Every structure is written in structure tokens, then in C-alpha cells.
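Posting here for the record, re: flavin-adenine dinucleotide.
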Amino acid sequence: MDKLYDVIIIGSGVVGNAIAREMSRYNLKIGVLEKELDVCNETSARNSGVLHAGFNNKPGTLMAKFCVEGNQGFDQVAKELGVPFKRCGKLVVGFSEEDKEKLIAMKEQGEKNGVKGLEIIGKDKIKEIEPNIDGEFAMWSKTTGILNPFLLTIALAENAAANGAEYYFGNEVIDIKRVDDIYNIKTEKDTYKTRWVVNAAGLYSDRVSKMLGIDDYTIHPCRGEYFILDEKVGSKLSLPAYPVPNPKEGGLGIHLTPTIDGNVFIGPSSEYIDERDDYSATQKIMDLLIKDGGRIFPHIRREDFIRNFAGIRPKLASKEEGGYHDFVIEMRDEAPNVL
Ligand SMILES: Cc1cc2nc3c(=O)[nH]c(=O)nc-3n(C[C@H](O)[C@H](O)[C@H](O)COP(=O)(O)OP(=O)(O)OC[C@H]3O[C@@H](n4cnc5c(N)ncnc54)[C@H](O)[C@@H]3O)c2cc1C
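Prediction output follows.
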């Protein structure tokens, strides 16, 4: 293709589309390259759909900053895009004295990050907020919300496209060369020319980085499996209920989440895997979801399971290291005009 773009974004998940939308406010020629046949096919399609408040992240990290700012600004974004969103709050429930100490530390961390509306509550208050959740005490976060991640990602993309961003699906980027300050991005279908490149390729962002000459990232895929429960269970759960997370695991623990469409998710598990596209469900994990989920929400019946799915976390932290790293947003000398 002879056309020269100002910016090409690689990846059409929630991150690539949010960037496309934001950039489309300016007078720029924008292209989005996506290997799948539509937007929102990978991690953005396979998660809990929770708008986090920002108390899980270490103060000073990009995660803490964006989580808090993103949460506070989301009513406006949802309104502009016409995306249904419910600020229903969330409970992180504990059972032991050790859990209680962790909840108090989590509240303090959240407050350092600027999260408002955090409160430590006892059993009676838990039952008042949601009678179907069990726990001795909890941290109640009033600003957490739920949304449908497909609708959000699609709305971001449609807004960007309406503002002139051009989308190319079924275009997996396989090679990138820079000639005379112009990047030539080769896909299986064509070659695209651009002055700037944004790498938003999620699980494959390390491979795209390597094509750009940046060698020092490795993504470790970490799968999370879920059950979806029938809509009739939805009326029994008004807000997400999480356990106290184990920091070594690098996930937030197996939780119960009402979806904006009226179902309930149980999950996700947290398991490092070898392949980045292995979305299989396993008996071992399904049993674990029922056991761990049932501790917080004793209304799980097998006849309510309507299907299962899995998402894969693109982690920079390896299994041995545990936990998780901060977001990476950077520009490097070895790859000029690349974000
Ligand atoms: C189990 C689980 C639960 C989660 N729960 C939550 C939650 O409740 N709340 C929350 O905020 N976050 C949650 N997350 C995290 C959230 O889902 C991710 O942060 C977010 O979806 C990442 O979006 P992305 O655009 O970076 O990646 P993706 O959605 O994966 O998008 C990347 C895109 O790049 C494309 N791509 C890759 N390589 C190429 C290539 N070579 N050429 C062209 N295209 C390419 C892919 O096909 C994909 O469409 C969860 C994640 C998981 C796995």
C-alpha cells in the first residue's frame, strides 16, 4: 500500500482502540492493524469486566495512577460512548485475623493512591450490603464498577473509525523495517507505511517489540479460567465479591462477579501455561472454582453453569518470580517514533 500513515497501531484490543480514539481527536492519518477478523478477540474479550478502583496496586506505579484516574473519569467515557456501566461497588472479604490485617493494609494502600470510599466493615454490614455473600469482615470499595468489555472496546473502535481511523483486520504483522525514517510494516496481506508505530499487541507485544529491535521483553502467558452462571443467579449477587489476594499468585483471587448483562462469573484461576493461545478448560480448575467460589458465595449449583471460558494474562513476571510488573509505556532510542 502506497498510502503513508502518521501512526499505525498494532492490536485492536481495548488499549489499541482507546489510543486510536484519543489520537483520532487530532489531524492525523491513523491505521489499526489486527491479526483477527474483528476487534476484541483476545484478552480484552476474556476478563471479569470490572472497573477497578485502584487499591490493589503499589503507590507510585502507572497501574495505580491509571486505575484511579480511569475509574474517576469513567462515567464521562461511558456516557460519551453510550456504554452501559454500573458503579455497584465491591467487597473484598476475609475470614481470619491475618486476612483482616491484609484488608487494613490494602485500604491504606488504596488511600495513598487516592481511592475514595474505602471502608472496613464487619459481618452485619456485609449482610446488609449483600445477604448472599459470606465473610467475617470485608473492605467495601464504593467506586468499583462493572461493564461489558466487548461493548466498551467496540464503542472505542467505532468512535475512532467515525473520526477517520482506518482498520485492517486479518492482518497479522510479521515483519517491520525502517527505511529513510518510514516504517514498513509487513502483514500477511500487504505492507503499510507509517511515521509512527504504537505497539498494543497484548500477548504478542514482546514479538512485535523484537520486530522493532527491542529484545528485552518476554511475555509469560498465565491463564485464568471461568464459569458463567445462568441469569437466574444474577439476582442473588449485586456486586463483585473477592477474596483477600495472595500477592505471589499475581491475580486477584477467584472471585464472583455479576455481569452487566445479568449473569455471574466465577473465576479466574491463575496458572502459567506454555502456549499463548491455549484457552482450554480443565477439570482440575473447574473443581477449584466451585470450591473457592463457594466459600464466598454459597449459591453455586451445577445446574446453573451455562458455559466456561478462559483469558490469558500477558505477564512480564515469570512463574518463578510471581506477582506482576507495572504497565510498560515507553519510547526507546533503538526504535525511534515507536511507543
Ligand atoms: C483472566 C483475566 C481477568 C481480567 N480481569 C480484568 C478486570 O476485571 N478488569 C480490568 O480492568 N482488567 C482485567 N484484565 C486485564 C485486561 O483484560 C487487559 O489489561 C486488557 O484486555 C489488555 O488489552 P490489550 O488491548 O492490551 O490486549 P488485547 O485485548 O489482547 O489486544 C491485543 C490485540 O493485538 C492483536 N495482535 C497481537 N499480535 C498481533 C500482530 N502481530 N499483528 C496484528 N495484531 C496483533 C491481538 O489479536 C489482539 O486483538 C483481566 C485479564 C485476564 C486475562
